[in-house]
Design a protein that fits this description.
By secondary structure, this protein is α+β, with helices and mostly antiparallel strands. The chain folds into two domains: 5-65, Winged helix-like DNA-binding domain superfamily/Winged helix DNA-binding domain (Arc Repressor Mutant, subunit A); 70-118, Ferric-uptake regulator, C-terminal dimerisarion domain (Dna Ligase, domain 1, 2-Layer Sandwich), CATH 3.30.1490.190. Helix content is 33%, strand content 21%. It is built from four helices and six strands, in the order H-E-H-H-E-E-E-E-H-E. Strands 1-3-2 form a three-stranded antiparallel sheet. The protein has a three-stranded mixed sheet with strand order 5-4-6, with no helix packed on it. A hairpin with a 7-residue loop joins strand 2 (51-54) and strand 3. Helix 2 packs across helix 3. The longest helix is centred in the middle third of the chain and has 13 residues, at 35-47. It starts with a helix and ends in a 9-residue tail after the last strand.
């Protein structure tokens, strides 16, 4: 995959995000790249492992720049996504998956966050 100037712009915008972001939101932040190009390239980045795509509890797909040993906690009340940095290997060891070659690991904890003032 060749990294064109538009692709680099999309990747740069994703790297600057502090949380997951929808394709629509990302496209609005980089208005000089048309929305179709953003969507098409996000799919390409996911396919090539540069970007992770998530769908939490049936909501809109969200994306983030792929980082190793990176997992999530999702609040079921306000949809807040908290990033958790935990090494994959101890998790894999705990799972005890023997004859299986893990290519990626995504742990998502669901519950209610401590920001109760955001919940109705």
């Amino acid at each position: 995959m060749k990294i064109t100037p538009k692709r680099q712009t999309i990747l740069d915008a994703l790297q600057k995000q502090t949380s997951t972001v929808s394709a629509r939101t990302l496209a609005s932040e980089i208005s000089h790249v048309d929305q179709a190009t953003v969507y098409r390239n996000l799919d390409l980045f996911v396919k090539n492992g540069l970007v992770n795509k998530y769908v939490f509890d049936g909501s809109e797909s969200v994306y983030e720049y792929a980082k190793p040993d990176h997992h999530h906690a999702v609040c079921t009340e306000c949809d807040r996504v908290i990033h958790i940095h935990a090494p994959d290997q101890p998790i894999l060891d705990l799972l005890g998956i023997g004859d299986f070659s893990v290519q990626s690991l995504q742990v998502t904890a669901r519950g209610v966050c401590a920001k109760k003032h955001q919940h109705k």
